[in-house]
Design a protein that fits this description.
By secondary structure, the chain is mainly beta. It has 2 helices and 36 strands.
Length: 536
Amino acid sequence: MKRIKSLIAIFFIIVLVFSGTGCITSKGSLFDEVLSADSDISSEEEDAEEEEEITGLTIKTNPSNADVYINNSYAGESPVTELLDSGNYKISVKLEGYYSTSEWVNYSEGENISLNINLEPIIGYLNISVSPVEAEISTGWDDLYEGINELQIGSHIVQAELFGYEKWEGQVTIHEEKTTPLKIKMKPSVFDISNIFLSRQAFNPANPAGLGESKINFDVNTYGQGDLKIYSDQGKQILKQNFPYFDTWDQSFVWDGKDNYGQLVPDGNYRVVISGKDTDGMNPAKKETYITIDSSLIIRIRTTLNGTSGTMFCPSPDTLPPGSFQASVNTFGHIEGENYRFPFTANARIIPDKNLEITGQAGIVILPETSESYYFSVSAKSVIFNTKISDLSWYLKGAYQNNHETDSQTNFTGMSAGLPISVSLLPVTLVLTPEIILSPFRVTYEGTSYNSGFYYWGYGRAALIFDIGSAMLGFSTAMRITPYNLTINDYNPISAGVELNYLIPGTGIFITGTVSGEFGSSKYYINAGGGIGLIN
């Protein structure tokens, strides 16, 4: 384990070194061509945005949705923008529960003026007496206390809570500059157990770093004691956990799939029984639920930077099990003198159906002295078959990027279909993925024009993945294959990358480091970056 942690630390140091030495991690003008293509598109959009600049008088209020009047004529609810002739205008604002206010504005036709008005609430008072005095009192928005409290006029729902007592709730009306009395007397609770919730209804104890366990949550409403027992399908008790003293609402127990003797239990359905009583041994309560141990539910971190889960440049056939999800944010880039290019990407994997995984991606590219380029994609992936050593899936992907020329992430605008297949000899997995794409645009690093219409080409993708405990190390590559160009050259570069994902034990949070690049016959450039994500 120490050796693995040392290797992880060395990898992230390498990522930092590449990030800080962009000027020596390129050769030729390939990076300049990519940057130029992005900048041209971004500049055109920036010019269009400047032409759409709106003029007029904009009136904003805090809070919003106030009634706005201009020279005593109703203009609508804030925020409001009006095109006016030159002149002096009286702006009046009204909102229930706030003092009305007015301001004068001198406006010249064609100007763009923003007027921000803060409204002052109308105040009254609430005098509270409560038993027991330790109760927590609030309106849901504001905390209240025994004695005099200042509140905005109008109706309010007041709540009082204290462990060991029934929740109290009532409605009061507050009037301007007047004091309203409120007396709260809470009733002791009768012991009960409620709100059983499992963090995982089914889980695989072999999954790493907290993903191979389930947290059993439940609530009690007063002081007492109890226990949690787990039974097999045959009714045999395999585990017992005592709770010697309940002194707060929230209770929990984390089950790692082991019995009383520390042995992993076999796959199957298990009954969870939670029992308890109050401190006097009275008012017994019991609740039950079921939990499943399933060794086929394998959760692995997979990068989604090319629009489908897998590695940076090669989708893999595996999907998350039902009930799981993955979300992450990533950035990587290249710095060369005063030029730089940094894509920022948000990604998510969800499982709407047992054999269907949906991956979504959206991002922007930060460029020098221009507005940002952007991109997004959505893909659907489903398993065709899986065995202990081999998996096969299909996926469909739709992608769009407003730079229609280069293809740095091999996630070009168009509709794609692929068939990832893998062979696994744990912890090593080899993945090969043929993909075909149909697009209204064409990849062109040389900046030449092309005829309008639809274009198609293929991607040859490959990856080598190492799943070692809490870490995933991946090597991947991709190249475009067209009927007219089967070679790697400066205008059809190959993409390749190495990545490391590390799951922080017990948190579900993982960190990512990446080093990647595009490589032609005489030109190349290298990116470095990282990210953070959550998997469950």
